[in-house]
């Protein structure tokens, strides 16, 4: 059976159609929202009285509707009683005189003026008619001691289908607030007490019910005003102060257009609605706007797009105008520098770093290296300390497999690798690059020397592809050609360790009888403490020192 859904009771005003939530042919369930209306004081969703199929939509976006206007025609499912879609008839509640004496009121002007001479009184403000259900207080817009004007919004309520502002019925000063945030209230509940000057009680707000003067003493003046003669209603409209902007205010005080469901979603995400740009009519905030805002914030947090978000919530570095102190020049970072900075920042923030320092005696290794200089030159390579470090570290990654792992994304598993690929840092004019040598444990010292030289040259000439810098299990960063003693290299996540090597120097070493001059190599091993403990790191650097001290031990 076909029936027409009409606008339910929304008072004497009009509401604008800001959202149509269904289309012709849609099957809807009972209580499913069909249309969203927005009036001066509330936004509300009009629900379907029962399940059925939409036959036609009689309104369009932007239409202004009043109580009783037709909204939607739909075919109700069989076996369901028809709804009484007729609007509430308020004609019988037409305007009555301002007091129960009716026409005698003008004949008693002195008595009518007596209340105006009273001293200030404290009046109660209660929840006006909001139907049979309850609503939650989601915002309180005033504080104790505030002076408010008539019609000024005091708090915001939210029910299942609407959010609404409760206005002050008269001007005065807030004496006390009897309600709390998140409190459920219903019609007639006390929410505030207000101190009003004498005579204010004879000037109730336009939302009072004139045919119930006894409510002036209880403060429950917010029952919808009955219909009045046209000329009298026009007069009251002129005297009534202009309503506040539509939409519930945010905590920052900015008015925001949003429905109850959107406000609930924003509270669940912890989003301040004032920060969300609205894409709906009249800049209304939709669910999609809140979801997009949250996604953008999460993406910025992951990528470190801003200093504040990238620093995991730490305060950003303050901006300084350096030109105040002297002449400056601003140059763009290279793309490689920008990528490197992002990767290093991410690793530093995500990896709990610990660095183990040690010294390796490479006196015998250096003598062997120099002795093989001619052999290396015959095959066209230069034998440096790096191939020895690569070979020794590959040997240790096989010997101590807990270093040849990566932490799984769930943080509860370790990914063990059955291959040994090692990266080595190369300083280029455009920034730091880390070429990767694959299967280091299967290659000779001369092969490693040749491949390292070739990859380093490609890196400096910008010929090293992305594949040549991926898949490393471990990284070596050597500053021996520059100098220094120790430093703290940053783990190149998802690896769990990196070896820093500084310049070797001759140092006196006690052999039990006398001090002997030995060539000592400073080692700095940084590691991810989630995957590696301190004892394992100390054992690693000790074993590395033993292997470098006598390279023949790697043959055992």
TrEMBL record:
Span of domain Lipoyl-binding: 2-75, 122-195
A single cellular component GO annotation: pyruvate dehydrogenase complex
GO molecular function, one term: dihydrolipoyllysine-residue acetyltransferase activity
One of the Pfam families matching this protein, by short name: Biotin_lipoyl
Cofactor: how and how many bound: Binds 2 lipoyl cofactors covalently.
E.C. designation(s): 2.3.1.12
Regions of compositional bias (Acidic residues) in chain numbering: 87-106
Compositionally biased tracts (Basic and acidic residues): 211-224
Family matches, as PANTHER family: DIHYDROLIPOAMIDE ACETYLTRANSFERASE COMPONENT OF PYRUVATE DEHYDROGENASE COMPLEX (PTHR43178), DIHYDROLIPOYLLYSINE-RESIDUE ACETYLTRANSFERASE COMPONENT OF PYRUVATE DEHYDROGENASE COMPLEX (PTHR43178:SF2)
Known partners and oligomeric status: Forms a 24-polypeptide structural core with octahedral symmetry.
The name this protein goes by in its record: Acetyltransferase component of pyruvate dehydrogenase complex
Gene (name only): aceF
């Amino acid at each position: 059976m076909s029936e027409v859904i009409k606008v339910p009771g929304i008072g004497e005003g009009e509401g604008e159609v800001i959202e149509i939530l269904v289309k012709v042919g849609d099957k809807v369930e009972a209580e499913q929202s069909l249309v969203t209306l927005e009036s001066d004081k509330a936004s509300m969703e009009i629900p379907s009285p029962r399940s059925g199929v939409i036959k036609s939509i009689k309104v369009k976006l932007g239409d202004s509707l009043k109580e009783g206007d037709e909204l939607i025609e739909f075919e109700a499912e069989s076996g369901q009683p028809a709804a009484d879609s007729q609007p509430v008839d308020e004609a019988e509640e037409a305007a009555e005189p301002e007091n129960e004496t009716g026409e005698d009121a003008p004949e008693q002007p002195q008595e009518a003026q007596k209340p105006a001479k009273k001293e200030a009184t404290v009046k109660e403000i209660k929840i006006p008619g909001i139907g049979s259900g309850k609503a939650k207080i989601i915002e309180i817009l005033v504080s104790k001691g505030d002076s408010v004007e008539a019609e000024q919004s005091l708090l915001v309520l939210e029910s299942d289908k609407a959010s609404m502002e409760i206005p002050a019925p008269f001007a005065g000063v807030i004496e006390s607030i009897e309600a709390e945030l998140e409190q459920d209230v219903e019609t007639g509940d006390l929410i505030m007490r207000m101190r009003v000057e004498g005579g204010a009680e004879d000037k109730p707000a336009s939302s009072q019910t004139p045919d119930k003067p006894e409510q002036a003493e209880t403060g429950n003046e917010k029952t919808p005003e009955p219909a009045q003669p046209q000329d009298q209603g026009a007069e009251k409209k002129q005297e009534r102060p202009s309503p506040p902007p539509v939409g519930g205010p945010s905590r920052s005080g900015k008015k925001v257009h949003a429905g109850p469901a959107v406000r609930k979603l924003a509270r669940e995400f912890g989003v301040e609605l004032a920060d969300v740009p609205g894409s709906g009519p009249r800049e209304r905030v939709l669910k999609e706007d809140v979801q997009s805002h949250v996604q953008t914030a999460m993406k910025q947090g992951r990528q470190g797009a801003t200093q504040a978000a990238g620093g995991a919530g730490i305060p950003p570095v303050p901006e300084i105008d350096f030109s105040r102190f002297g002449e400056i020049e601003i140059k763009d970072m290279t793309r490689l520098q920008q990528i490197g900075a992002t990767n290093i920042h991410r690793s530093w923030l995500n990896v709990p770093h610990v660095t183990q320092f040690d010294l390796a005696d490479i006196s015998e290794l250096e003598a062997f290296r120099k002795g093989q200089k001619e052999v290396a030159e015959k095959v066209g390579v230069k034998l440096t300390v790096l191939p020895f470090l690569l070979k020794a570290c590959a040997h240790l990654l096989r010997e101590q497999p807990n270093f040849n792992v990566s932490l799984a994304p769930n943080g509860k598993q370790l990914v063990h690798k059955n291959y040994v690929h090692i990266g080595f840092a190369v300083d280029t004019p455009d920034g730091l690059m880390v070429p990767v040598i694959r299967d280091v444990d299967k290659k000779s010292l001369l092969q490693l020397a040749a491949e390292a030289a070739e990859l380093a040259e490609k890196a400096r000439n910008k010929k090293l592809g992305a594949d040549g810098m991926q898949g490393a299990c471990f990284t070596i960063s050597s500053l021996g050609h520059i100098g220094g003693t120790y430093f703290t290299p940053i783990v190149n996540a998802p690896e769990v360790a990196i070896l820093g090597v500084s310049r070797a120097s001759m140092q006196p070493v006690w052999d039990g009888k006398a001090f002997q001059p030995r060539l000592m190599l400073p080692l700095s091993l940084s590691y991810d403490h989630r995957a590696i403990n301190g004892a394992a790191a100390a054992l690693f650097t000790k074993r590395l020192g033993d292997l470098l001290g006598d390279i023949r031990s790697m043959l055992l």
